[in-house]
Amino acid sequence: MTTEGAKKRYLQVTPSGAYYATVNSQPDDARALLLQLMSSEIPIEHSLDIFAELADLDKELADALFKRLVARRFLALVKEPIAPRQGSLESTLSDILLTLSATDKVVLGDDQGFCLGSSGFDRDHADALAALAADLISLHQRHHLLLNKELQLMGESWGLLDPVGNSMLGVWIIHIGSQSFAIVIHGQPNLNQHQFVELISALASRYLDQ
Q: For the whole model, what pTM was predicted?
């Protein structure tokens, strides 16, 4: 390996960064940049010029944004980036969704109640849970002023809890551009791993510019 090659670093969105990018629909430079990185079909090498072009900012503002994202651990520099998955969205979802729950039971639905993919549930239950999740998306949209503005509660997640507060079934609402989706997870969620980034990347590649 050449000295130049050894010094190369690539931009890698972290699970925390993927969560921040999709946690609500309010636009900002950080969310836009993270979603753009996750929608890329190829790894992106880090340089200030490239980062500024991607962020559509001058170099001084781009450098400040980069440092903020790294400090908050939304973005990392890595020698060997994880290559985006190839293939259709449907085939990608079948491999990813089961990793997001300790019980392997997950449903991904859109805001119209359509089930995009599932793991561990039979088809009828997956369709019913996708419809339920769409109702929760609508419910949250009607009350977001209270929850997200007045009470300043970050996030759009809902849960069915047991008597001691543990989630038996959780619904995570995520936003990709103008599109909203819901991840329904049975049992303990596993969103703090790279498969969650891969899920957001797959959705961003399909829906970000629509």
A: 0.90
Q: Cα 118 to the chain's mean position, in Å?
A: 17
- Phi/psi for 114 (5° steps) reads -85, 135
Give per-residue pLDDT as tens, 159-184.
999 999 888 999 999 999 889 999 99
CA 9/CA 45 separation, integer angstroms: 6
User: Cα–Cα distances in Å, from 116 out to 32, 80, 100, 108, 129?
Assistant: 24, 31, 15, 6, 11
Which residue type is seen at 204? Answer: A
Q: pLDDT below 50 — which residues of the chain?
A: 1-3
Please provide the DSSP assignment of the chain as one string.
Answer: --HHHHH--EEEE-HHHHHHHHS-----HHHHHHHHHHH-SS--B--HHHHHHHHTS-HHHHHHHHHHHHHTTSEEEESSPPPPPPS-HHHHHHHHGGGGBTTS-EEEEETTS-EEEEESS-HHHHHHHHHHHHHHHHHHHHHHIIIIIIS-----EEEEE-TTS-EEEEEEEEEETTEEEEEEEESSB--SSHHHHHHHHHHHHHHTT-
What are the tokens at 62? 């781009």
